[in-house]
Automatic annotation (TrEMBL), chain A:
Name of the protein described by the UniProt record: Serine protease
One GO MF term attached to the UniProt entry: serine-type endopeptidase activity
UniProt entry keywords in alphabetical sequence: Hydrolase, Membrane, Protease, Transmembrane, Transmembrane helix
Keyword set includes Membrane: yes
InterPro entries the UniProt entry points to: Chloro_Bact_Ser_Proteases, Peptidase_S1_PA, Peptidase_S1_PA_chymotrypsin, Peptidase_S1C
Species name: Chitinophaga silvisoli
Gene3D superfamilies documented for this protein: Trypsin-like serine proteases
Automatic annotation (TrEMBL), chain B:
Organism annotation: Chitinophaga silvisoli
SUPFAM superfamilies the record matches: Sigma2 domain of RNA polymerase sigma factors, Sigma3 and sigma4 domains of RNA polymerase sigma factors
Pfam families assigned to the protein according to its UniProt record, in alphabetical order: Sigma70_r2
Keywords: DNA-binding, Sigma factor, Transcription, Transcription regulation
Residue ranges crossing the lipid bilayer per the database entry: none
Similarity remark: Belongs to the sigma-70 factor family. ECF subfamily.
UniProt xrefs under InterPro entries: RNA_pol_sigma-70-like, RNA_pol_sigma-70_dom, RNA_pol_sigma70_r2, RNA_pol_sigma_r2, RNA_pol_sigma_r3/r4-like, WH-like_DNA-bd_sf
Top-level taxonomic group: Bacteria
GO molecular function: DNA binding; sigma factor activity
GO process terms (BP): DNA-templated transcription initiation
Protein name per Swiss-Prot or TrEMBL: Sigma-70 family RNA polymerase sigma factor
Domain RNA polymerase sigma-70 region per the UniProt entry, residue ranges: 29-97
């Protein structure tokens, strides 16, 4: 059977032109001869392809006709304004987003800065120096009377700030807080009798907040100091007392050592439970025997009854750095040990001074 | 309810398309082409790009509509639009249109499985187009007349001046054999 006859048979078979006998014979041939079967499949495929090819061409033609009949000008006009709008909208959006981002950035940076500042302020706000801001009204009667009696010069102006100091040597050296005398133009020392003497700061240590003053007035006469500085650590719970000038009169206060560290874990200071007020800065902190164990410096504002005192070891370090020959002896014999508290105070108060600062 | 009504109308149109109803074809074309044109123009394509794209999508729809399993679940507009986006994405990727890829087209397209079928059919169409193009006359017209226009062999014999239908048939067989050879050289079943 040649190709032409085969194709004829295939077509006749597919188009249903064969009678029953021919059809059966052809189907049998297809089954037995894979070449014929393949030819049949190929024929079916190609005619189907031709048909779909034709349909598609016809569709394409029809669509081209429809397309040609479209009013392209109108469609173009309807479609083109859109892209312009889209672009401008995007640009506007970009500007807005950029502006919003800038605002967000500035806001967050400001917030961070404010929070940090607030945190710093919070910490410092908790600690308060207990130096006193003086004014005219606070002048005491006592001081005036003493002034008249002794004809000693008391400056008419009571000073800008006030603190407390105490004698450390027999020849006019006085210990107080650095923050009391910081930035001072002139410093005056006033005793319980109201006698005032000019003094100068001879040594200052910011880190321990201590200052050593020297009374420069030639009229100053001192007595032997009845207490010594105790350099050993005071223990928790040890009873302590202080004498200071929160007002123009000397005030006694009593308490105990609460902790071995000061504000924010400062190991150079004690935490002391003792009533302190502005003006107590630089006041001596004494143990039951009357020896100096620390110097009152400040208190915590956020809690009651929490005061801080620099340890006497810091004072020792300071004193050792001073030239000895000028300063004289500062480790005296304690002569207060066996006295009652009232007697101790009576002896002590002559050596505790009000420090007045003018600036 | 409006949505359902729209779907019914779309199904009606689709049925018309299957039956080669020119009116249905025209309606679908006129209603859906503007949206595609807008999309293409927005993404810096030309009007010819839009025409090619849309007509190819129509062919996909047409071929799909011929198969019995095809059912329209979305609106015709959505369907055509999705196919256009897919086709365009493919063209952009293949680099035949030197355009940057618009962001909103970079997504998984819904009509993906439809498109595989179409790619196969499209390949066969191209091969058939080539094969028929290289056939030469009178073979090309005889095959078109018989297999596409469904003219009878007698009419064809008369048109081409064959003495009888049998001669014309023999000629047709020869033509078909040549076409088969051309077609299956390039296309393997």
């Amino acid at each position: 059977m040649n190709d032409s006859n085969l194709i004829r048979d295939i077509e006749r078979y597919l188009e249903g032109d064969m009678n029953m006998q021919e059809k059966a014979a052809f189907e049998k041939l297809c089954q037995s001869d894979p070449v014929v079967n393949e030819q049949l499949k190929a024929h079916q495929h190609i005619t189907a392809q031709l048909e779909s090819y034709g349909r598609r061409l016809a569709l394409q033609e029809k669509m081209d006709q429809i397309h040609a009949s479209l009013d392209m000008d109108m469609l173009r006009n309807a479609a083109t304004p859109a892209p312009a709008r889209v672009i401008s909208f995007r640009r506007r959006l970009l500007t807005n987003v950029a502006a919003a981002a800038c605002i967000a950035l500035v806001t967050s940076l400001t917030t961070i800065a404010l929070i940090q500042k607030a945190n710093r302020q919070k910490t410092t706000a908790q600690y308060e120096d207990v130096r006193r801001v003086l004014n005219n009204i606070q002048r005491s009667q006592n001081a005036l009377i003493n002034d008249i009696n002794n004809k000693k010069r008391v400056p008419a102006n009571p000073g800008t700030y006030g603190g407390t100091g105490f004698a450390i040597t027999d020849n006019g050296y006085v210990v107080t807080n650095y923050h009391v005398v910081a930035g001072a133009d002139s410093i005056y020392i006033q005793n319980t009798k109201g006698e005032a003497y000019k003094a100068t700061s001879v040594f200052e240590d910011i880190s321990s907040d201590l200052a050593i003053l020297k009374i420069t007035d030639s009229t100053f006469r001192s007595q032997p100091i009845p207490y010594s500085v105790k350099f050993q650590k005071a223990l928790r719970g040890e009873k302590v007392f202080t004498l200071g000038y929160p007002r123009d009169e000397i005030v006694y206060g009593e308490g105990y050592i609460s902790a071995q560290t000061g504000f924010n874990g400062d190991s150079a200071a004690y935490q002391v439970s003792i009533p302190v007020n502005p003006g107590n800065s630089g006041a001596p902190l004494m143990d039951a025997k009357g020896d100096i164990v620390g110097i009152v410096t400040g208190k915590q504002t956020t809690a009651d009854g929490i005061a801080f005192a620099v340890k006497s070891a810091q004072l020792k370090r300071l004193l050792e750095e001073m030239p000895k020959e000028k300063m004289g002896k500062w480790n005296h014999k304690n002569r207060l040990e066996n006295l009652t508290r009232v007697e101790q105070i009576k002896k002590l108060e002559d050596f505790v001074y009000m420090v007045k600062v003018y600036n | 309810m409006k949505h359902n009504l729209n779907i019914e109308r779309d199904r009606e149109l689709l049925l018309g398309l299957t039956r080669n109803d020119d009116k249905a074809l025209s309606t679908i074309y006129v209603e859906n082409f503007p949206a595609v044109l807008r999309m293409v123009l927005q993404h810096k394509g030309s009007e010819d790009d839009a025409k090619d794209l849309f007509q190819e999508a129509m062919i996909v729809l047409y071929e799909k509509a011929q198969t019995s399993e095809f059912d329209l679940y979305s609106k015709l507009k959505t369907y055509l639009y999705a196919i256009c986006r897919h086709l365009w994405l493919k063209k952009l990727q293949s680099g035949s249109w030197q355009l940057s890829l618009p962001d909103e087209l970079e997504e998984v397209l819904p009509a993906d499985n439809h498109m595989e079928d179409h790619d196969k059919k499209d390949e066969q169409f191209r091969i058939m187009e080539q094969s028929m193009g290289s056939m030469g006359e009178p073979c090309k017209t005889i095959l078109e007349d018989y297999y596409i226009r469904k003219l009878s062999m007698a009419d064809i014999a008369e048109k081409f001046g064959y003495t009888n239908a049998e001669n014309a048939k023999n000629q047709k067989y020869k033509c078909l054999m040549r076409l088969k050879k051309l077609f299956f050289d390039k296309y393997k079943l």
